[in-house]
Design goal:
The complex is a heterodimer of chains A (about 110) and B (about 120). Chain A is mostly beta strands and about 110 residues long. Helices cover about 0% and strands about 55% of the residues of chain A. Chain A is globular, with a radius of gyration of 13 Å. Classes of the chains: A mainly beta (about 110), B mainly beta (about 120). Chains A and B meet through strand 4, strand 5 and strand 10 of A and strand 4, strand 5, strand 9 and strand 10 of B.
Chain lengths: ~110, ~120
């Protein structure tokens, strides 16, 4: 079965540093991977999508990579701020890839300390 | 981006009663919506796919008679938790996508507590 695995341990970093979160998947490479941010008691908010044929995608301080050899995506936040503290979820399409139908990793909680 | 609104955000109910959760797409039409459940410290798990005008599709292990889904219009899907038990206490989240888009838009979630 398809799985998404993220490091469930919290990641604590100092403000201004770069946070790097890891997402590993099993079985065949998905057409794309998505990254979401989830704050406590809230629904996920879409951040970035990276396609299988893209090595890297950037959006402001965010950068995502997709390595089909390692079956891994890395999510980077540069110049991190306390406001970046949240849980970050990696997701792949569930089955045929219908938009919105996703398999999520368990999420990695990031804590940025001032 | 598109907006998905979920209501209520919190609900407390007694064991044995039923609770209805609404999910609305505010500025777009959604022929398909999805319902997820999230237990504390765990990831979102897909429960069912809600199809406008037809029956919902449930994931393995999800009781269709307990979690009733109705998708009567292109902007509204409802999830009714019937005969709720304390173990149904969880965070329920809906999502919707639009044609041509590959990102999903999520509601703000509903915290259900069954006492």
């Amino acid at each position: 079965s398809q799985k998404i695995e993220q490091n469930s341990e919290a990641l604590n970093i100092q403000e201004g540093k770069t946070a790097t979160l890891t997402c590993n998947y099993t079985n065949y490479s998905p057409a794309y991977l998505q990254w979401y941010r989830q704050d406590p008691g809230r629904g996920p908010v879409f951040l970035l999508l990276i396609r299988e044929n893209e090595k890297e995608k950037r959006k402001e301080r965010l950068k995502v990579t997709f390595d089909t050899t390692l079956k891994q995506s890395l999510f980077h936040i540069t110049a991190s701020q306390p406001a970046d503290s949240a849980t970050y979820l990696c997701a792949r399409a569930h089955g045929s890839g219908n938009t919105g139908k996703l398999i999520f990793g368990q999420g990695t909680t990031l804590q940025v300390k001032p | 981006g598109a907006v998905v609104s979920q209501h209520p955000s919190r609900v407390i109910c007694k064991s044995g009663t039923s609770v209805k959760i609404e999910c609305r797409s505010l500025d777009f039409q959604a022929t398909t919506m999805f319902w997820y459940r999230q237990f504390p410290k765990q990831s979102l798990m897909l429960m069912a796919t809600s199809n406008e005008g037809s029956k919902a599709t449930y994931e393995q292990g999800v009781e269709k008679d307990k979690f009733l889904i109705n998708h009567a219009s292109l902007t509204l899907s409802t999830l009714t938790v019937t005969s709720a038990h304390p173990e149904d206490s969880s965070f329920y989240i809906c999502s919707a996508g639009t044609v041509g888009n590959t990102e999903a838009f999520f509601g703000q979630g509903t915290r259900l507590t069954v006492v």
